[in-house]
Design a protein that fits this description.
This protein is of the alpha/beta class. Helix content is 39%, strand content 15%. It has a six-stranded parallel beta sheet with strand order 3-2-1-6-7-8, sandwiched between helices. A two-stranded antiparallel sheet has the order 4-5. Helix 5 packs parallel to helix 7 and helix 8 packs across helix 9. It is globular.
């Protein structure tokens, strides 16, 4: 039995939809943006982890130790995330909310930066889940929350289960950590997203895939026909098409 055979898929409607951040809502990978002259080296490690070649815990803390991001740098990254949101992100989040669907961001990115995305997309702070950093009194890097499941392989499904998602629920993401959540049954539909980068190992294992470069293209995968018809007038009319 292949991985795809183990991934259940339940079509919409959903009570909650979860999004990854890096290379899903935004076109960038945050840690690579912070890396400066180390960017090429760390980008290779990031890609290998997100493709499932390396366990996340093998690189997560090591990347941060190499980069040692400052508070100011991570705040600037948050603004960069907002500047590089995919087209249609705001509209899709608004349509999901109008349809009564709860939305979360669950990311292995840095919480201080990812919260900028949540605010831009209208999410309450408690619906944004990412990795917390520690800084000293001068704003210099002083470590990360090593207890977070988001910094290790298999951690995303553990966190999703701990959150007690309202089911049925869907997850949209590009990486191996997102695929793990689907294999573990932590969500009812996994959309392997390739609108920024299509990772072969993830796409080949997923039952549902999208290479949409405008996130409004995900609406048929996340909203039922009845929900889309109900949105067919007013500011969300595009969802009903």
């Amino acid at each position: 039995m292949g991985t795809t055979d183990r991934i259940g898929d339940l079509p919409p409607p959903y009570r909650e939809v979860v999004f990854d951040c890096d290379s899903t809502l935004s076109t960038i990978e945050g840690i690579d943006e912070l890396a400066g002259g180390l960017a090429a080296e760390l980008a290779e490690l990031t890609d290998r982890a997100m493709s499932g070649e390396l366990p996340l815990e093998a690189i997560f803390g090591a990347r941060l130790e190499r980069v040692r991001p400052t508070r100011a740098g991570v705040e600037a990254l948050g603004q960069r995330y907002v500047e590089t949101l995919l087209p249609g992100a705001r509209e899709l989040f608004a349509a999901l909310g109008a349809a009564g669907v709860g939305v979360r961001i669950v990311s292995g990115g840095l919480a201080l930066a990812v919260r900028h995305v949540g605010r831009e997309l209208g999410l309450a702070a408690e619906r944004v889940h990412a990795v917390e950093l520690d800084f000293d009194e001068h704003g210099n890097y002083a470590g990360f929350d090593a207890t977070t499941p988001l910094a290790c392989a298999g951690g995303k499904p553990r966190l999703l289960n701990a959150l007690g998602l309202a089911r049925p629920a869907a997850l949209v993401g590009d990486g191996a950590t997102d695929l793990e959540a689907a294999v573990a049954g932590a969500v009812d539909r996994f959309v392997a997203f390739g609108g920024v980068v299509a990772r072969d190992a993830v796409h080949s294992a997923a039952a549902v895939r999208s290479n949409a470069t405008d996130l409004r293209g995900l609406a048929p995968l996340l909203l039922s026909e009845a929900q889309r018809e109900a949105l067919a007038s007013g500011p969300h009319a595009w969802a009903g098409r």
